[in-house]
């Protein structure tokens, strides 16, 4: 979603732009707030660790499961639009 948002809003990106850079740039352009940015950063870092640190795969898999069951399961994300902008909002329903 970050990449689509950036392209639609004429941001300059190339095909080798990393996920974390896409998140940072979309945040800087007002697509979502700091809290959601940090949440997305954590998600991508976990995914990257699982993908690239094959020697730590078991640990990464466990961390991903914990993250999903303690955070993602309670997350509700909404795409809101107005005449002026489109933003991504969220609500954490975790008590």
Overall description:
- With 95 residues, this protein is an alpha+beta fold.
- The protein has four helices and two strands.
- It has a two-stranded antiparallel sheet.
- It is flat.
- The chain starts with a helix and ends with a strand.
- The mean pLDDT is 87.
Approximately how much beta-strand content do the residues carry?
5-15%
Q: Structural class of the helix and strand makeup? A: alpha+beta
Total strand segments: 2
Poorly predicted sequence stretches spanning 5 or more consecutive residues:
none
The sequence of SSEs as H and E is: HHHHEE
Number of helices: 4
User: Main sheet: which strands, in order across?
Assistant: 1-2
Report how far apart the termini are: 27 Å
Question: Largest sheet, if any?
Answer: 2 strands, antiparallel
Shape: flat
Rg, Å, rounded: 15 Å
The helix content, as a percent range, equals 40-55%
Rounded mean pLDDT is 87
What are the salient characteristics of this protein?
single chain; 95 residues; alpha+beta; two-stranded antiparallel sheet; 4 helices
Outline of this structure?
The protein is of the alpha+beta class and 95 residues long.
List the helices and strands and how they pair.
Layout lengths: L1 H7 L10 H10 L5 H19 L4 H14 L4 E7 L4 E7 L3
Antiparallel strand pairs: 1-2
Helix pairs in contact: 1-2, 2-3, 3-4
């Amino acid at each position: 979603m970050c990449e689509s948002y950036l392209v639609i809003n004429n941001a300059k990106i190339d095909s080798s732009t990393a996920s974390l850079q896409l998140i940072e740039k979309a945040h800087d352009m007002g697509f979502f707030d700091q809290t959601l940015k940090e949440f997305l950063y954590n998600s991508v870092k976990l995914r990257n660790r699982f993908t690239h640190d094959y020697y730590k795969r078991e640990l990464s898999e466990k961390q991903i499961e914990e993250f999903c069951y303690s955070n993602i399961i309670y997350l509700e994300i909404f795409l809101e639009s107005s005449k002026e902008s489109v933003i991504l909002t969220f609500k954490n329903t975790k008590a």
